[in-house]
Amino acid sequence: MKEDKKSTNRSAVSIHPDTNIGSVSLTVSSLASQIQFYREALGFQVRYQDGTRVVMGTNGRDLVELVENPAAARYRRVTGLYHFALMYPNRQELARAIARLYAQQIPNSPTDHIMTKTTYLDDLEGNGIELYCESPEDGAWSLQNGEYITRRADGSLSSGREPLDVEALFSHLQEQDRLDEPLPEAVRIGHVHLHVRDLDQALDFYQGILGFDSMGKVESIGLAFVSAGGYHHHIGLNTWQGVGAPPPPEGALGLRHFTVLLPNQSSLAEVLDRMNRAGLHREETREGILVSDPSDNGVLLKANE
Prior knowledge:
8-stranded mixed sheet; globular; 9-stranded mixed sheet; alpha+beta; 305 residues; 2,3-Dihydroxybiphenyl 1,2-Dioxygenase, domain 1
């Protein structure tokens, strides 16, 4: 992959390869309705609730924090969350999740990205959600001349956005698989995808300061991916709300912040040192170190120990 010559701030740094994405925090207008949606549609469990704030996820992992603001509104043509993605451990569990959506007649868009099997949906207030499992045995994508190329395992080309063969996916279901069980323990946030105002600014932050590795940029469609440890992407970046899009007003519906989960304190300290040298403002909270990217998307940094 060619280095982007427009950037002047990116350096040859690399975030710890075991870095992952942790929980996502959202502002919602109706906490009760959203709790019901995440519980019934996706099998989330309430892990902690205190007044207008609830944390939901699996039995052992926080996935989503919901903070209520009844006056919050949804704004268009602004930066923020495109979607957060729940990664399932295998096709069987993804099949169970999609069958659950079908049983409840919840609109969703099953898609075959070849290297992943996926469906997309929105929660009750328009927050985008992806459900996916890895399927590298079916093929992979690569970056060639500034364009993403997807090839199946047999070498044939794919758009990378084919309709998912849901019937084939459902063949992985077993007779004993129940659709009303809680979210499997192994499910975690696989990646987040963000609307940003400028790809180069975003890459200067996520690659040059935080240290994520660039997995490629497609200038023609305003899209870039970054990751840790060679994963296809932990963070997607796009300018689909418009180059130069402003952040939403304070108190808007949607993303408050997402968590970058580093494996230990020393790897966190390395990132904080780069932030200090870049002169970035940060806020120390009880959950971790909160910083904003150049598009005012909140990023919470914390160590997993």
